[in-house]
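Researcher: Structure prediction, please.
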Amino acid sequence: MAILECRDLSKRFGNTPALNGINLSVEPGRIVGLLGPNGSGKTTLIKLANGLLTPSEGQILIDGAAPGKQTRSEVSYLPDRTCLPTWMTAARLLDFYGDFYADFRRDAAEQMLEHLNIPQKQTIKQMSKGTREKVQLILVMSRAARLYLLDEPIGGVDPATRDYILNTIISNYNPDAAVVISTHLISDVEKVLDDVIFINQGQVALQSSVDQIREEKGMSVDALFREVFKC
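Model: Predicted structure follows.
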């Protein structure tokens, strides 16, 4: 069964369509790039999957169920903006996540904090913007979830840290889970992707495996994206 499925999914804000008749599925064990220009509907789709928005029409299903109380224990979500309480220390955040999520792996989180030289006693307020983003990603990837929804996980960090973050994503997710990465930094994430979904003006323009693109089109995902979405 698909871990994420959309059936004729539409979302409107007033009279403005954000998503229009989306049909797609994401299988367990896959890392999927959700790729498209700004304003294409990527964040709206991720928020629908996380239950932060409700569909105007159609369905979105997580492991066969509509987003709600049941699916929150299966989905680990990284928003496109940092939303950590600034008075908390990294250690307090680990306590909080451990209390809130039964699947939180504290040992994995502590190991990643140590690797990135982030002191557990430091408050979020004392951290740089980039460090805050790393802490938030560490918390998200330290859960043993079924579906990871990552909205621009490498947008605000330096290239060296991007590599570490991508390796963190690969090595810390459950093989029976799926990862959806929304990003515009395609050349950076392409090496970790199994599949891609191109989304444009609220519609799916392409869903394919990365291998199929390379074999049939003879080009990289980044090159194909530039061709499909060229101005």
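Model: The mean pLDDT is 90.
Researcher: Thanks, that helps.
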